[in-house]
Specification:
1 helix, mainly alpha, about 55 residues
Amino acid sequence: MYPAGMTAPSKNDDRAERLAAALRENLKRRKAQARAQDRIRQDGAKTEAQPPKSPSK
C-alpha cells in the first residue's frame, strides 16, 4: 500500500471536480435565464405604462 501522499487521484476527486464544473455551468445558465426574464418583464412594464394613442382625425 502506498503512503497517503503518494496515491493517485481517486475517482471521487474526479467526480467531485466534474460535479463542481456542472454546478457552475448550471448556475451560469440559471442566472442568464433570470436576467432574460427580468428584461422581458421590464419591457412589458414599459409598454403597459405608456398611454394608448388616440386616433387622429
